[in-house]
Design goal:
461 residues, alpha/beta, seven-stranded mixed beta sheet, six-stranded parallel beta sheet, binds shikimate-3-phosphate
């Protein structure tokens, strides 16, 4: 997730090597996900283009704009520049004229054309989830961020919109604007203490703190434009209820896809957008792993047959981390199968070799490591993998483990295969170890299918 971040001075000297767009943002250290989103889309669609990030002080916007017009294909304007850029544009689309905000500038035939992609990005995200707004009771939490575009889309779709926020003057001003843009729009204003409980759809435009301690009773769908976490604090309010939730990452991808079409006339397909979304969520999980947990690796433990290897492979593909399976690594190092090691060395000898391998693997960084089912029984192994890794226990239900371990074509498990009664050996070992897996791990994820485990795991990191 690295891309050139330039000051205005550096942008003056900048010479693009390939088709390039720039994110104009301010203040300089404001985190913006845009360049990562563009890069993910280009990787998937195999385009050779670049996105740079330029810190543009508001007073220097005209200079930065003139430089961009000479050098690059287009600009994505972050919040402080979206209104200030309007007088510099030669043409604007309908949404810019309605909202008085341009988030995208494309230089086409020597002309600077302004677009607003927020509205279309939001609409595309809702459409992806099959959410229709017509006559729905929609609650908009606040006036910041994408609030204007979201409110405008709701009004155009004839939703019954309620807006609330910490400052009721701002809320009333937004209500007035929306009613001017969409005459006849049904927009009401409530203080946050008096929100009606029959709101069916709740929208949070971010980034200000959300305004609820619980969701209205009838909420069917919750959209939070924040996208740094897969389950934002607001999304956590949905808890175990049936309320469907979506964070802002898909909206960002849909917006970026539209921007790329405007800048380079390349139109990412819906399938490419889906793949980019998956990869981005994987990259963001790695970022959280480093920033929130101070770790470089993801280490999976759990009972034999709990799905560690299958899940680990998928997780590695999603995050871009390298995959290792401690059993496979041991077999490669020793040139023998696990079953052969067990029969030649006995369990204790096998565990010694396993420990040596785990210590070697634990030194690596940027990996997903699936551990053999007995690896965490030795505290020294746990200590070793936890140095660089977040240790996650797969808490797969017992019946599923039994299913996974039955059937032909399964690899031999010497600990289970020795005696006559395999089922009771699985039962005995599982109950003897269950508590150990949980107690040594930093966290655990429960799920029946691999897809469920993967989703929970991504939400846990
Ligand atoms: C073992 C589990 C196996 C393997 C070895 C011992 C165990 O790995 O390391 O047969 O003690 O539970 P899986 O968990 O991948 O089956």
């Amino acid at each position: 997730m690295s891309f050139p971040m330039l000051s205005l001075k550096e942008f003056r000297r900048f010479r693009p090597q390939k088709p390039t767009c720039a994110l104009f943002h301010w203040p300089p250290d404001s985190y913006q996900i845009t360049p990562d989103v563009h890069r993910a889309l280009w990787e998937v669609s195999r385009q050779d283009a670049a996105c740079i990030s330029v810190a543009v002080p508001p007073a220097r916007l005209p200079e930065a704009f003139a430089l961009a017009k000479k050098k690059i294909h287009g600009i994505h304007c972050a919040a402080p520049h979206q209104a200030a850029i309007l007088p510099l544009l030669e043409e604007t689309d309908d949404d810019v004229r309605a909202l008085h905000l341009a988030d995208t500038v494309a230089f086409q035939g020597g002309r600077a054309i302004g677009y607003n992609t927020e509205l279309a990005g939001f609409a595309a995200s809702l459409q992806h989830d099959g959410i229709a707004l017509h006559r729905k009771k929609v609650l908009l939490l606040g006036c910041d961020g994408a609030a204007k575009a979201m409110a405008c889309h709701c009004a155009k779709e004839k939703a019954h919109l309620t807006i609330t926020g910490p400052n009721l003057h701002h809320v009333a001003a937004l209500q007035k604007q929306i009613c001017q843009i969409v005459p006849g729009a049904r927009v009401s204003v409530f203080s946050r203490r008096h929100i009606p409980c029959d709101m069916q759809i709740v929208l949070h435009p971010g980034p200000e703190d959300f305004l609820l301690s619980c969701l209205p009773r009838r909420t069917e769908y919750l959209f939070d434009a924040a996208c740094t976490s897969p389950v934002t604090k607001l999304m956590q309010l949905a808890g175990s209820r049936k309320t469907r939730t979506r964070n802002g990452l898909l909206m960002q991808v849909m917006q970026a896809a539209q921007m790329q079409t405007l800048w380079f006339q390349t139109c990412p397909t819906p399938a490419q957008c889906e793949t980019a979304l998956r990869r981005l969520s994987g990259q963001m999980a790695v970022k959280r792993l480093r920033e929130n947990h101070g770790k470089q690796n993801i280490v999976l433990c759990g009972f034999t047959g709990s799905g560690k290897t299958t899940l680990g492979r998928k997780l590695a593909r999603l995050t871009g981390l390298k995959f290792y399976d401690s059993d496979q690594y041991l077999e490669e190092q020793e040139g023998q199968t696990i079953a052969a090691l067990f029969s030649s060395l006995g369990e204790h000898g096998f565990r010694d070799r396993e420990t040596a391998c785990i210590h070697r693997l634990a030194q690596k960084t940027g990996i997903v490591l699936s551990l053999g089912g007995g690896a965490v029984l030795r505290p020294e192994n746990v200590r070793a993998v936890k140095q660089n890794g977040l240790l996650i226990c797969l808490d797969t239900p017992y019946y599923r483990i039994v299913q996974n371990l039955s059937g032909s074509g399964k690899r031999p498990r010497p600990l289970l295969d020795g005696g006559t009664d395999r089922q009771s050996e699985i039962y005995r070992l599982y109950h003897a170890r269950k508590a150990v897996y949980r107690s040594v791990s930093d966290c655990s994820v429960r799920g029946v299918k691999i897809s469920e485990l993967l989703e929970h795991l991504m939400n846990t990191i």
